[in-house]
Write a structure and sequence with these properties.
Elements (H helix, E strand, L loop, with lengths): L5 H17 L6 E9 L2 E10 L2 E10 L5 E10 L6 E4 L3 E2 L4 E9 L6 E10 L6 E9 L1
Antiparallel strand pairs: 1-2, 2-3, 3-7, 4-5, 4-6, 4-8, 8-9
């Protein structure tokens, strides 16, 4: 006669716990560093996950060309239009702007695209380049 006592119960309970833990949501991802692109650059950090995005940046206009530097965060939402979050524009050679933002997204995010933009001071003639993608 084969015994199915406590050892079998422990194995079944362990398998159940492991499957529940593997189904838990992933940790929030974060990135900090520097992005450079048309119009200037930005340095800072961003944290993405659990429907929240927290960011803190310094944007600098590094060109004396009459255009401004701007950071753009694009929230990548599956099956829905993406949403943009723009920093204030830094206009004028070596001008800096601080940008801090935290928001909650009600729809599931895949992640966020970090773009550096060159834009005219009146908001027209925008050219952006994606520099980094941070997964949710």
């Amino acid at each position: 006669m084969q015994r199915t006592g406590p050892k079998a119960g422990v194995i079944a309970a362990t398998a159940c716990i492991v499957s529940v833990l593997s189904a838990a949501p992933a940790q929030a991802d974060s990135w900090d560093g520097v992005v450079n692109g048309p119009g200037g650059g930005a340095s800072g950090k961003i944290k993405v996950g659990f429907g929240e995005v927290t960011q803190n940046w310094t944007v600098i206009d590094s060109k004396a060309d009459g255009y401004c530097a701007q950071l753009r965060i694009i929230i990548d939402i599956p099956r829905f239009p993406d949403r943009n979050k723009d920093s204030r524009r830094a206009c004028g050679n070596q001008t800096t702007r601080k940008y801090k933002n935290s928001f909650t997204e009600t729809k599931t995010m895949n992640g966020v695209k970090i773009q550096m933009c060159r834009v005219h001071s009146d908001g027209s003639d925008r050219h952006c380049e994606t520099k980094k993608y941070v997964k949710a």
